[in-house]
Amino acid sequence: MRFFLGLRSLILTLFRKILFLWVRTDVSGNSVEALGVDPEKPVCYVLQYSSLSSRLVLEQEVLRAGLPGAESSLPVKNGPNHSFFFLYRRIGGLFRRRQTPVPTSEFRALVRHGLEHSEQDVQIVPVSLFWGRSPDKEKSLVKLLLSDTWSVAGRLQKFLIIMVHGRSTYVQFNQPLSLKQVIDEYRHSEERANRKLARILRTHFRRVRQAVLGPDLSHRRTLVGGLVRTQAVKEAIRETARKDDIPPEKVRAKAYKYADEIAASMSIVTIRFLEVVLSWLWNRIYNGIAINNIRVAKEEAQDNAVVYVPCHRSHIDYLLLSYVLYKNGLMPPHIAAGINLNMPIVGPILRRGGAFFMRRSFRDNPLYATVFNEYMHVMFSRGYSVEYFVEGGRSRTGRMLQPRPGMLSMTVRSFLRDHRKPIVFVPVYIGYEKVMEGRSYLGELRGKKKQKESVFAIAKTVRKLSNSFGQVAVNFGEAIPLAEVLNEVEPSWREEAYDSEYRPKWLNQAVSELSNRVASSINASVAVNPIGMTATVLLGTDRLAMDEGQLIRLMDQYADLLKAFPYADTITLPEGSGKDWVEYCENMGLITRQPQKLGDIIALEGSNAILMTYYRNNIQHLFALPSLIASLFENKNSLRRDKIEFLASVAYPYLKSELFLKYDAEEIDGVINQWIDVLLAKGLLFEEEDDRISRPEEGTDAMLRLRVLSRFIIQTLERYHIAIGILRKYGSGKITAGELEEQSTLLAERMSILFGLNAPEFFDKTLFRNFIANMQHNGVITTDDDGLLCYTDGLDEVAEDARLVLSVEKRQAIQQVTMLGA
Question: Where is this motif: HXXXXD motif (predicted)?
């Protein structure tokens, strides 16, 4: 018997080595840490369908990773150290029709063993294997034959699949199941225990396949034609024909053209081509891609239609997220791309990579709007994953932009029409240490016209590929189920009937709540990097320069602040210390060193001084509250704790809206007090008698730390004071919101020149617009029938409190223009 077992083992080993002369694998989750297995308990690995090739791949990866094995007492043994079994075996042969798969004898034996040995638990690790990952496209019979899809391949088909796709085999190890927990309730019924474990494993494999392969894709021509035949589009065609006096046939042709212009044409060949090209590209321009919290995407993709909502900092975002998802075993999403990217050569490649194109505005084109809405509804109702940028365009300042409601509203309305498939939003923060478009952003912020996308512009970008752009981080935030948001806004939303045109009264509120939650969740997943930390501290100095030793100490101390009161679990901090970060920034060419006998000076010079505001703004929200508290001591030696709490809570709603902070109004008082305690513990503030808090003495290292900390947010507060000052200059009922916005922008630009402020967002008109809108929302100002802004004496009190944070020079500059007395 031993001879035959040894011979069998030798033959299998030989087959495995032959197979891996051709096969190349990409493996996920194949470590003890990733699996979370208990080393004290035996482990069994399970594949869904019986297959010699799958068994050989599994055996190779288990041995290669050195994963734990099973005890000799288990009925399922494969070799001396490991055990694995198949859930189902197939009935039928090469020339006979295959019947419904049935559970294998090894599976039944393991269940029987668990029932007979109740004291022993077995960890069952499901392993999913994909010979290439292709969506089911009906365009080519050959591709259908040679794609690993939802159907079970026969022996001949499997052989051909391995020959064609074996070099892109994907293996995914998943979290173990406890055999004891699964079958405990069926100790007296082996058959019911078998059915329960089989059902759990079957459901698991189906969910993983859904996440990896995505839903079955329809033929694109069929999809486009189906859009034109939907009831909503038919009605839009009739209405357009009647309104514009055009024959319905011509309008129908136009609708078909719109659908064809919009629809993606995802191709696995293109995706694999892009994978190869992008792997080369990332290795050439980046020092690595750090991926964090990817488990969220993997878990949510199994049962939901996932909407990935990343921040938008670069055109690279499109490619990077799809690449990361594909490399981690998930189907790339369909991506909403601007029609400006549908240019020759590039457009067809993006479309085959999953991009669908949308016009910048279609408010005046109801036919196009209807076709696009129906396309989005098809995406969501069929369970496709989708990606779009809630900010609309790329952020030129490094801050999260105000979300635009368009795509979010379409998503909500689609879900209301058909909510059988849950929709979950997965926020994604993409953080660059050096954004590729940085220099062009500087030009645009200085008033240069935005460069139009073209093939020639892309060709110019290729010249930058010899540069190093540091590391890039892709952080996944906590998922946001759409149903939960709707339950909070309108608990009875499921009781209404919805069609393609119906917009409930509470829709805007739901979209607003969703957009704020998405934006704050993206910011709660920020990746702090050495560039951001260095920029934050140096931009807080008077001359954008600092002694190297002092700079290193300050960065270490501010990093300790973030660790003392973490903003969110999904935040990631840089490795190393301040010394490492200074060296890294110097190597990246973003800071300059001026040698000096008493100690080298690190400085920001030229355009880098403005460029670094971009990276400072990436992480500004993390320091917003401690910096706000520190700024209150700019002109005051001490304040009562309750006064600090009051002033900070008054300013907080405006900071929350502008920086998308995550804390609700109900919890902010407690958070402010926690930050006061942290600043006390770190020696930046001191506790006096009568519940007073004081700042350190002038000239001390602690006072320097407090003052630099206050400057992280003080320009934002100064901008608020500018708007309030101009409003008070004109008086109540004398100026419109648009005029106030314009006057505030002009004064901010003047102060930027006078005081050498290197932050382009200081005179960003949209930020003033948002602040004015928030004052209206909070009831600080109102609008009369003529559109003029009115306020009460309460605004004067706010203005007086705001003076605490302004230097004498800046107060005088504002007063000179606004003609307000001291």
Answer: 311-316
For residues 285 and 320, what is the distance between their CA atoms, to the nearest angstrom? Answer: 13
Query: Highest-confidence range of 62-76, 93-107, 217-231, 328-342, by mean pLDDT?
Result: 328-342
- For the entire predicted model, the pTM comes to 0.77
Please give the C-alpha separations between residue 142 and each of 132, 145, 265, in angstroms, as whole numbers: 14, 5, 18
3-state secondary structure of 320: helix
Task: Identify the CA nearest to 263 among candidates 354, 338, 330.
Answer: 354
Does pLDDT of 32 surpass 90? no
Q: Which residues in 486-508 are b (16+ Cβ under 10 Å) and which e? A: beebbeebeeeebebeeebeebe
Give me the phi and psi of 632, to 5 degrees please.
-70, -15
Tokens 């020092």 found at: 287
Q: Where are the domains of the chain?
A: 2-213, 221-523, 530-710, 714-818
Q: Is the pLDDT of residue 522 over 60?
A: yes
Strands 123-131 vs 169-173: parallel, antiparallel or unpaired: antiparallel
326 Cβ contact partners less than 8 Å away, ≥ 6 residues apart: 133, 271, 275, 332
Give the domain 221-523 fold: Glycerol-3-phosphate (1)-acyltransferase (3.40.1130)
| 475 contacts 428 by C-beta, under 8 angstroms | yes
For residue 725, what pLDDT band results from cuts at 50, 70 and 90?
Answer: confident
For 145-159, the pLDDT digits (tens) are: 455 554 455 566 677
Is residue 459 helix, strand or coil? helix
DSSP label at residue 634: S
